[in-house]
Amino acid sequence: MSQYVIAIDQGTTSSRAIVFDHDGNIVSAGQLEHEQIFPKAGWVEHDAMEIWNNTREVIGTALSKANLTRHDIVGVGITNQRETAVVWDKNTGVPVYNAIVWQDTRTQAIVDELAADGGVERFKQKVGLPLATYFSGTKIKWILDNVEGARAKAEAGDLLFGNTDSWVVWNLTGGTDGGVHITDVTNASRTLFMDLESLSWDEEILSIFGVPKSMMPEIKSSSEVYGTVHGSQLLRETPVAGILGDQQAATFGQAAFEKGGAKNTYGTGNFLIVNTGEEIVHSKNGLLTTVCYKLGDAKPVYALEGSIAVTGSLIQWLRDNLGMIKSAPEVEELAKTVEDNGGVYIVPAFSGLFAPYWRSDARGAIVGLTRFVNKGHIARAALEATAFQTREVLDAANADSGVDMEDLRVDGGMVANDALMQFQADILGIPVIRPKVTETTALGAAYAAGLAVGFWKDTDELATNWSEDKRWVPKMDPAERDRQMRLWKKAVTKSMDWVDDDVK
């Protein structure tokens, strides 16, 4: 009987379940989008109950498409949108508020308050992160401070917190009937609360934020058996055996196991991760220090990360808010109707600027407009914004590591866009390489679970599964590359200093 691993990929816009075989190939998949809730400017929320219900449904879809049952599945891996905070009542299983999404900027006042003593890098040496609205910690504090009765319940020990990995695992393993409240080191490293060296919650920082330690999940490795699926569900008794935050999962799925190995994921946002081995490297160029993965009892592997808030979601904005296109793939065809961007640059600082600037006062800007410009130029500028932002985080990674990257492995939904990938190679000046299996986020979670249950032997075996599908090489003249980057950097400056007391 053939055996398989199933990965649950709980992402920013959808939840998916993907079944993988031993060669790392996709056997079947189920996917459901969930509502994006925007109560106010800068606020982004999800309904955590909708996410859980969708997760159960996509598991059933993936199994039924391949005519599989729980007996065919040896393990469940979880990957998830990191930093998206869920706080729920452990007695009822009901969230006390919507999940606050990683893109949400409502907690800027909390950031400013905490940064008044020591600046935004107040905790960075210990946790690897600057104070920013991006991370889970400020979102938990906001819920406790603003949801009626939440703080009293938390202090009584009745509330639990988790990124969406913890929420899904708790429900999978029984919820109010004995659900396991855990997270892995990669997700824990995105809260502002985990000491990178000890891999434990820092009680002093929790106290400064006013977050009871009783809310926090137990920190586990990325690959071990945490529990089994609860008896009433389709995958009942199947081991839940792997958790990796989405970007670390993509790095794992790209088989970037060696120090210096790197990948760039093109999703709602873009995320470049560079494996730094067992060494904690503190960035001097605006990158984050994070945990790459930890396999069972082995030592943790660390990484530098360049996080870009808005890339794929800029294309969604053209579709949903402006109505310029009816589906995301149409943007490539629209961009092809023009020879260049017509002098237009789009800086999509919808949630401020993330790496390498970390400017919460920035907001989106379209610059260089003339009467010559049409929607083709806007579409092209939107695609190019992704490539320009990636170049800036790659430059930062090269500066921190002291070694220039020779090529870039890419994955995520946007890598199907040939025009974007060619421009990416052009603006980087190095080859861009797409693997045969581009669903590397789900694959990484499957790998983590499969290693824990012995489905795969070791990372060497996983590395043999990776194979190249397509390579784009630079064709742009170096002088033109430099000109484009100069104009891009000029455009970025136009997005800054926008938010003040009168503009939120």
What descriptors fit this protein?
504 residues; alpha+beta; seven-stranded mixed sheet; 23 strands; 33% helix; 22% strand; glycerol metabolism; Glycerol kinase
Briefly say what this structure is.
It catalyses: glycerol + ATP = sn-glycerol 3-phosphate + ADP + H(+). By secondary structure, the protein is an alpha+beta fold.
Note down, in words, how this protein is organized.
- The structure is a single chain.
- The protein has 16 helices and 23 strands.
- The chain is an alpha+beta fold and 504 residues long.
- The strands form 7 sheets. A 7-stranded mixed sheet has the order 17-18-16-15-21-22-23. A 6-stranded mixed sheet has the order 3-2-1-5-14-13, sandwiched between helices.
- Strand 10 and strand 11 (200-201) form a beta hairpin.
- Helix 1 (48-65) packs across helix 6 and helix 12 packs across helix 13.
What's the end-to-end separation, in Å?
59 Å
Structural class: alpha+beta
What global shape is seen? Answer: globular
Strand order of the largest sheet: 17-18-16-15-21-22-23
What is the overall pLDDT average? 93
Work out the strand percent.
Answer: 15-25%
Q: Could you estimate the helical fraction of the residues in percent?
A: 25-40%
Per DSSP E runs of 2 or more residues, the count of β-strands stands at: 23
Largest sheet: 7 strands, mixed
List unreliable stretches of 5+ residues.
none
Radius of gyration, in Å, reads 22 Å
Number of helices: 16
